[in-house]
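Contributing: when you submit paired examples, paste them exactly as shown. First protein:
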Amino acid sequence: MQIKYIRGWAMSLAAGAALLGLAAAAQAQEFPAKPVKFVVWTAPGGSIDVLSRLIAEKLSQRWKQPVVVENKPGASGILASEYVARAPADGLTLLVTINTTHINNPVLQSKLSYDPVKDFEPVSQLAIGSVTLIAPANHPANNVAEFVALAKKKGGGVNYGSWGVGSSAHLFGELLRQKTGLDLNHIAYKGEMPAITDMLGGRLDVTFAGGGTTRAQLAGGKIKVLGITGPRRISALPNVATFAEQGFPGFELAGWVAVYAPAKTSKGIVRKISADLAEVVHSQDVQSRMVENGFEPVGGTPEQFATLYRDEFPKWAELIKASGAKVE
């Protein structure tokens, strides 16, 4: 009797698991049944915001559901990350972010209100993006070397902007300070555009910005580009030399843009979102617009992104240490 009972119990468990599996598959297939929210931690108008709105528009068409971008700027992405980490694990609230929230913050800050690994499910790496150092169009320097030489000759402090404490822009600014001995004063903003506005208003000497934002500002004739980080030049700014090309090694890392879901979101839903994101990112019109905006399209799987994260974490941690960046 006991053996029969155990067999029956095992068969019931197997049947239940099969039913749960079918239910989960059906749920993923029907996803999304409600509007989806992209939470972006930078202010409207910046590179990540523009990319998020492009992807959201295409997903809305594909899913026949609204995909809304909600900006939660400030605190180097901590507010937005915490918000998504605490959201229901149903795939309807997604974080669109860069490496700041999941690498830089954990390295720089001893106490975070979220765990970058335990509180999230990696969904997809959307793109790779480099960072530019820009100045007002009337600035006498035309490249990084000239900027450094002029700043040393002038003496006194140089104010530079970034889109947050611990951001990639902040790290590259502090690394430039370490390598050149310049007296660089870091001023953090809630996005690229507020920093650019202050630079054009004379409150900053230079600032960092994403490739897409830089390209758009160049078209208006208000800025000039001194250099770009990353391992190579980008298609959106083919005439802009990298820091390394200009004799400043150590700036070769390029940031990534990725999508995360709250932890415990079902694997089926995560895979559905990832697959649909890949279809969108790999479409010709989206790829063209991403390249125009300074991004290198990726659109990988959750597993590929998880591997990239594990591989790049120590590299960024080393850069953070080399930069001497601190949380004010």
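Second protein:
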Amino acid sequence: MTNHLKKLIKSVHTLTHLPIYVFNEQFQLKNLYISNRVCVLPYDFKAFCGGSNQALPFIFSGALEEVFISYSHPGIILIIGPFTTLQLTEDLIEERLHSYTSRSAVWPSLSSYLKHLPFFSLGDVRDFLIHLNYLFTGKADCPYSEELHFQVERNKILFDEKKLETYNWNVFQPEFYTYRYEEQLLALVREGDIRKLRESLASLNSSIIPASTKKPLRSEKNYTIIVLEKLAALAIQSGHDIVDIYQLRNYYMQLLEEKSQLIDVLYVRDCAIIHFTELLHHNVRRSYSPIIQSIIQHIELNLYTSIKVKDISEKFYISEPALFSRFKRETGFSVITYIHYRKVNESKLLLKSGLPPTEVAASLCYYDYSHFARTFKKFIGISPKEYQLNPNTLPARSVLDRYWPDKLE
């Protein structure tokens, strides 16, 4: 199934909020688009729709008289639903439950299932079929309209009642669904593959309704903040500079609060997801052990102190020779070189802010200004003062840029 086709199917799901089952021609389930708005029951669609060589019924009902639509396109079969063509009152729901099963233990769950069914008139269903046909074929017609009213009762699919006793009703609770969506999203970000992220977003269920507040805009902003916190935590766990990540997170939070339209909130959220995926792309290529990640984070948090290898060795219970050897093996250069590299990188920000070079040297705990100037020139190629006067004119990139190219931007 092409990415274009996935996007079309997802757009139908997003607009209607209806679950969509995607089968191949052998009736193997390839994808399921669901949200936290509509539950689904354990129907065996394959036995019902795939058990004969006859054409699929385009509309059929379930055991509780809820309605489903089937739509076939070369290579795929879509089952869309459930929904109802009647507005269900409490009495009607109770009648359906009693007529279907005497097992009172499952009535509350089935009642909730029926109460949350979307309502579409049969006329709406016809228009929906026309829209589907146009999306997939470019033809704005519906060959089924005349039989529409008869097909609902003619085709009825049943589910195994025994499955209801062990069915996981929590799967479609808002909290569980939101957790599942966030886990899928973070897994994509963790891989650091932008192309895969963009392709997978077409098939990733994303109909999340944030916890309600009086204002939808505030609800979406609150949920975006939660996503930003999780993205930041993931980046830090992957070995990124804690300060840099918090600054990046805060940048998106500030940008978020400036927005007054829902579409702009979504845009900020998507930008942040892509940005963090790009950051993690670099970490995919250098997978550090937990102790080296911790040492790197320790260095990042102590740039404004005097960092000594002996202190790191004692803090992490590793001998100095082992520290030198392991750090060099995993990162490609010595721990001392990395400490100087990060301090120099930090000094660039201070110099750009206008802080005098001598104060920069003191802030970063260099022995004296001459020591700082020599170290700075070794990495950058020019003196701190020259850099401060013209920070946009730099010599060729240093050897360490091969390992942290994003750090010197």
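If you have annotations for the second protein, write them as plain sentences, like these:
The radius of gyration is 29 Å.
Residues 3-143 form one domain.
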